[in-house]
Amino acid sequence: MRKLYERSWLGVEFISISRPSPQVLASPVFWEDFYQAAFQKIGSWNEIDRVDPDFRKTRTAVAEFIFGRIESHDVILSIGCGVGWIEHCLLELGQGTLHLEVTEVAPAALTLIRQELSPSRVHQGFFPECIPTDRLYSLIFMVDIDFAMDQSSLTLFLSKVKGRLTGEGRCLLISPTLDPPVSLWWTLLRAVKNMLTPLLESVGLSQRKYFFGWYRHKEEFYRVFSQAGYSELSEGFIPAGPNPAGYYWIEARNS
Question: What is the pLDDT of residue 243?
Fold first, then answer.
């Protein structure tokens, strides 16, 4: 694992919300403030390109990948939907046929996506507490949320996900990873940047970043899925995301 630092997203500079911390993860209060600031800039889906030109492209590719793995009659849950663009795309691709539910901790993040779902399919709060106790899903997916958990926390979280899957249900996790199939040059460039950034920040030549969590190696994802009791693991890359290889995905069954 390697620590992850960021300074902005969706056109919002994190320093405008609170003081950057090099050690403490962002709190739910931070995320609520962040999404309130984001939706002051984003009044509709069409305005996302204006604040983050790469967001629509990468997240649309992720949505298309997820849609291609959906099986007929799937009951689907998205954990930590964020602004909801991926879920918006899935609903459009499904043309009214998908049973899709979402969870999100920050109420403000649901500003747009809640307009496209019935109230019974929008769950605000922490998973699994925010979900009705009798509800099971045949596909649960999550994109870019694992970074906020260390290995033991992620293993426990995946165990809780497993408890909300049907007998043959699948868990799909999508995230950047530390070992994508990219060129040696790109890998070296990233390593040099990671070494220089703390030095530049310490002398005031670069704005400080927030500690956002951790990137993982593929074997670390495999390990937590296995420890959580999953089987039939498969993996690959989606050609979109924060590095040349794209997003890493890993899927496993509840059996």
Answer: 58
- Cα-atom radius of gyration of the chain, to the nearest Å? 18
* Burial class, 42, CB count within 10 angstroms (exposed 0-12 / middle 13-18 / buried 19+): buried
Sign of the dihedral defined by the CA atoms of residues 85, 151, 7, 191, in that order: negative
What pLDDT, on a 0 to 100 scale, did the predictor assign at position 197? 54
Mean predicted lDDT score pLDDT of the chain: 88
DSSP state of 181: S
- Produce one character per residue of 192-213: b if its CB has 16 or more CB atoms within 10 Å, e if not: eeeeeeeeebeeeeeebbbbbb
Rounded to whole angstroms, the Cα distance separating 245 from 255 reads 30
Q: Domains in the chain and their CATH numbers? A: 2-176+209-253 (3.40.50.150)
CA distance 233 to 50: 38
Phi, psi (degrees; rounded to nearest 5) at 197: -55, -50
